């Protein structure tokens, strides 16, 4: 059994935005938003490098990467720590990520390569509400934050 669970898959599928942290040349963190994060298999995540030459350069120099993804309505998610590598056009990872992405939004977004992350550790990210509000549920937080953001639930 791999590191990535079914719940982690659900959060990644629902969140639609993740943040990738890599290490700059001077050792400082570099954060970049990613909207194409997908689960590749039980131990790997992938995202498309569309406009992230800095992220790619950082990974070539130092493959350390952390991905954070949080469902803003459920107020919970995961942080994935691992090693990233660039997968070129023509690789199975490239096709796995690029083809569905292009099918959904069109080919006007160029993809230079795919970042494949071997996940070595995954930890939960939880809102303090889960710790400090007795009896709080995901559904209660979902309802409250959908209201806060002015979002109408799709089932209404």
Write up this protein:
- This protein is α+β, with helices and mostly antiparallel strands and 156 residues long.
- The chain has a single domain, classed as Roll (Pnp Oxidase, Chain A), CATH 2.30.110.
- The protein has 5 helices and 7 strands, in the order H-E-E-E-E-H-E-E-H-E-H-H.
- It has a 7-stranded antiparallel sheet with strand order 2-1-5-6-7-4-3.
- The termini are far apart.
Key structural traits:
single chain; Pnp Oxidase, Chain A; 156 residues; 31% helix; alpha+beta; globular; 7 strands; 36% strand; 7-stranded antiparallel sheet
Based on helices, strands and strand pairing, what is the structural class? alpha+beta
Number of strands: 7
Strand residue content: 35-45%
Q: Within the largest sheet, what's the order of strands?
A: 2-1-5-6-7-4-3
As a whole number of angstroms, the C-alpha radius of gyration is: 17 Å
């Amino acid at each position: 059994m791999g590191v990535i669970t079914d719940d982690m898959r659900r959060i990644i599928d629902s969140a639609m935005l993740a943040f990738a942290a890599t290490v700059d040349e001077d050792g400082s963190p570099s954060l970049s938003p990613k909207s194409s994060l997908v689960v590749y298999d039980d131990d790997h995540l992938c995202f498309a490098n569309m406009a992230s030459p800095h992220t790619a350069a950082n990974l070539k120099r130092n493959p350390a990467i952390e991905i954070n993804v949080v469902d803003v309505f459920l107020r919970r998610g995961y942080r994935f720590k691992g090693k990233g590598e660039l997968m070129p056009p023509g690789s199975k990872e490239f096709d796995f990520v690029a083809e569905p992405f292009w099918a959904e939004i069109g080919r006007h977004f160029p993809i230079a390569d795919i970042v494949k992350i071997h996940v070595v550790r995954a930890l939960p990210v939880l809102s303090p509400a889960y710790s400090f509000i007795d009896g709080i549920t995901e559904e209660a937080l979902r309802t409250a934050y959908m209201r806060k953001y002015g979002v109408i639930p799709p089932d209404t």
